[in-house]
Amino acid sequence: MLTTTLAETLPDKVPYLPRNHRRILCIFPKYSRSFGTFHYAYPLMGKVKAFMPPQGILIVAAYLPKEWEVRLIDENITSATQKDYLWADAIIVSGMHIQRPQINRINQLAHQVGKITVVGGPSVSACPEYYPDFDLLHLGELGDATDAMIQYLDEHQNRPTQQIRFQTQKRLPLSEFPIPAYHLINLNQYFIGSIQFSSGCPYNCEFCDIPTLYGRNPRLKTPQQIIAELDAILASGNPGAIYFVDDNFVGNRQALNDLLPDLIAWQKKNGYPVQFACEATLNLAQSPKLLEMMREAYFCTVFCGIETPEPDALQAISKQHNLSMPILKAVKILNSYGLEVVSGIILGFDTDSPKTVDNILEFIRLSQIPMLTINLLYALPKTALWDRLEKENRIISDENRESNIKFLMPYEEVVGMWKKCISTAYRPEFLYERFAYNALHTFSNRIQVPNSPARTSPQNIIKGLTILLNLMIRVGLFSHYRQTFWQMAWPALKKGEIQTLIHIALVSYHLIQFTIDCTKGKESASFYSQKVKS
């Protein structure tokens, strides 16, 4: 194995001018299904086949020399064929730990036809040992290692005799990132669009690998970059909503304060073509000026890693910032600005007890949060949690388990708590009750957006009618909870609240169907679970 590292400082960057023509195939592997991928909703949505465009590999594709031919295949939409592999000179893959089997499978297929393979992204950067058979490893973020990798691919057509590692020493500033190669995908095939403003998070939660991978001092794009990317997204399709994939959208509040006026102006100029969503710490509720601007920019959803309502657990996992104000109060404040809160919930903490599941369910009832990603705790490499549990000999490698952690409570009891939690939280009547609260106390607090050409385009109308018709048939006629559905749907139809009806029914359909499969053992109790399903 060869490791190539470059100096910490480089002269002013000049685009690499390749001497040879290359064909590069970028592949994003299929990922495991979860609460948050909304895969059960896709058949009701016409063209939609995947959740979100893969930001990382889209940026890599845009960074490659313009002289080269570049194709991108998202295997969540369609699988790469042997013809695709044969077309390419080199294959570039990126992904997370959960995609590890698929990443290594792509490598095998590429090697069968003699192609050079490259793997980059968060998984290989944290654990290069997971990918012993790849030809080139790109470790770290976009930067000098990327330039070295490009030069290597320019100068070599044959596979190396041993693995070569390119380690980033000098990261490319986010302000110099290219616009992701949206032109290589069809955005109308995605449930939601994606965009990135910052990287890194100032907090250090025990189970999270973000600080290790991307640092605790958020790095930023400029507002001008974000506006250019939004324009590029609309040029490639309009998914109707765009998610800021930042690890913590409010990690640098001054920078966000500078960005939001530009987002507001862009929405007004373009007729509010999309809703925005983001991931942020719960203490966003303590920033009313930001919240008012987010409301004006038409942010409608915020994912908050609440994790648990139990204070002892939050202290133990270094998530004290969730206790800076009462959690229920924070949720209500976010709702008052039109933000539907989506919450992460985790079971399996050392502080959990048999009462924990009831405490979580009571929290769900009081908070009226409709959607919660309820998972078992899983230890990721390069986290404080992994390091602590490894010292305690509590890391377990067993594909028959839903988690790699030896819990302090009996494993089957923890899994049973998870099943009780999801089956109760997503009982149709309870779920629709929470959505009804949000329709009255959250959605009503959003700005009234105009019926602009961007919102009432023939494409949007056809998409909306397609979803509505499919919901009427699939849920209104054939579901076991059709009575609950119509109790919501009839009043919404009479009031002309079609968008609210579609949102509630579509999201609920996915959550209810996913829960049914979870209780049958067909879905995983953790997003990172490697358990083989029947």
Can you describe this structure?
Its cofactor is [4Fe-4S] cluster. By secondary structure, the protein is an alpha/beta fold. The chain folds into two domains: 145 residues, Cobalamin-binding domain (Rossmann fold, 3-Layer(aba) Sandwich); 252 residues, TIM Barrel (Alpha-Beta Barrel), CATH 3.20.20. The protein has 18 helices and 15 strands. Helix 15 packs antiparallel against helix 18, helix 16 crosses helix 18 and helix 17 packs antiparallel against helix 18. About 1% of the residues have low confidence.
How are the SSEs placed, and which strands pair?
Blueprint: E1 2-5, E2 23-28, H1 55-63, E3 69-74, H2 82-87, E4 90-94, H3 100-112, E5 116-120, H4 122-126, E6 136-139, H5 144-155, E7 164-167, E8 193-195, E9 198-199, H6 210-214, E10 219-220, H7 223-236, E11 241-244, H8 253-270, E12 275-279, H9 288-296, E13 299-307, H10 311-316, H11 327-336, E14 340-347, H12 356-367, E15 372-376, H13 384-391, H14 411-425, H15 428-441, H16 458-474, H17 482-495, H18 498-519
Parallel strand pairs: 1-7, 2-3, 2-4, 4-5, 5-6, 6-7, 8-11, 11-12, 12-13, 13-14, 14-15
Antiparallel strand pairs: 9-10
Helix pairs in contact: 7-8, 8-9, 12-14, 15-18, 16-18, 17-18
InterPro entries: BchE-like, Cobalamin-bd, DUF4070, Elp3/MiaA/NifB-like_rSAM, HpnP-like, Methyltransferase_Class_B, rSAM, rSAM_horseshoe
Organism: Aphanothece hegewaldii CCALA 016
Protein name: B12-binding domain-containing radical SAM protein
What attributes does this structure have?
alpha/beta; iron-sulfur; iron-sulfur cluster binding; rSAM; 15 strands; 6-stranded parallel β-sheet; 7-stranded parallel β-sheet; Rossmann fold; 534 residues; 2 domains; single chain; metal ion binding; 18 helices
